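Workshop exercise sheet. Pairs work together: one partner reads the sequence aloud, the other fills in the structure field after running the prediction. Swap roles for the next sheet.
Pair: D.N. / O.F.
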Amino acid sequence: MGLLDGKVVIVTGSGGGIGRQHALALAKEGAAVVVNDLGGARDGKGEGHAMADAVVGEIVAAGGEAVANYDSVATVEGAQNILKTALDAFDKVDVVVNNAGILRDKSFANMTEEMWDIVVAVHLRGTFCVTHAVYNHMKQRGGGGVIINTSSTSGLNGNFGQTNYGAAKAGIAGMTRCLAIEGRKYGIRTFILAPVALTRLTEDLALFQDEKVKAAMDPKLVSPLVVYLASDLAKEFSGQTFFVGQGRIAEMRVVTHTGVTKTENGGLWTPAEIAEKMTAGEILLPD
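Structure field:
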């Protein structure tokens, strides 16, 4: 018996890296998996069937159930086709893991409109398109569901050379927090992942140039959390953001300092008063 017996899961961008590990881990626990991957390079160029087919082959060889889908997540039509693949093969969707992504890193001064648009299209628009299709299926079906969206520390904490990627990933986090509120009525749970792992998308980042760090950043270390969140073990939770990688799992939160409130003069501050309170450490969160 597996934790996910009888569940149907879509994993986007699961032809390699973290997504592949998600698909394998979910299938190992009994889920039937739709392996979606456009099959392109890490910058989004090109396409092909080999990556998704290979992961499906691994799952089937291990005794699991899986089908491949090669549509782009960045269009409504593609998202609907991904859902259709799941419904044609397995009649329903219980879980979606939005993982598909590309990189076009560049310092902001050298960022082009094309670099900005394509990264936002795949990450933020792609997460919207797939989630929208699956969310409405879950809502109409009336059986609840789980939506796991991949954000990033680049969007939640910041990172040099990734303003396009960071903006998209921060948008995903905001979308997911709002959806957690809306989905509660329908038993649809949502979660945000901020994974840290060595994949073809991250291999050039400074963090991964240290050999010891590389050894500890196996993408398979991220997937057990996804299995847990997809399962009934996590049925009491929704809306949380998780840092995960290198064996560590930790909740991340947006926090607001108590700060200081002015009651005089209708609450209208002067710049000099703000400067005084800033210097006194009453506004900024402590380091």
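Discussion prompt: The mean pLDDT is 93. What would you look at next?
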